[in-house]
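TL;DR need structure tokens for one chain.
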Amino acid sequence: MPGILAIWNDIEDAVVETYERWLVSEHIPERLAVPGFLEARRYEAVRGGLRYFVSYTVSSPEVLTSPAYLARLAAPTPLTREVMAGFRNMTRSACTLAYRSPGEAVGGYAVTGYALQPAALDAAALLDAAAAIARDPRVVCAQVWRAVHRPGEAVSSEAKLRPGGDRSIEAALVVEVMREADALALEDSVRAAMPMQTAVYRFLGLWRAPR
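>> reply
TL;DR here they are.
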């Protein structure tokens, strides 16, 4: 079962240029060099929500507690230290892939909705809603992510650099479409299934691990 590292965040305007350079030239390649990391996707907000949305697909959730990954978290680079100080409203969770509609398409836009922990969710209703949304002809992919709970997990050296600490999600619904108008039109459907923290994002890029 694949795993997902789901991240939403804002960034201080003063470090946006550095953040962009760091993420693309250093951070994503560093993460994709960790065994078990498969790909990274980047998005930027069009309407609502936090400014950036990044997801990493891993071969299993256990990759996110592997010695290789924890070693990276324990030894942030100088540029990582600089950029992390500019992070705001960090929302980050390791997740399992609970549902994915057929196909491997990547849309030009994504509508995301997530519930923060703790949250009372009807898991069956969420899966049913995702499957119904996936049948809409405008949708190229729909996924449900469920957070992996690890009580007592130590805060990493990297996380300690981010002001305000990290928030965690309970679950997320991610719906991909080809056009912005379709994403905006489907926002209400996503909000009905996942009424907290709904936003529309523009796809910026896809990176895959070296083969």
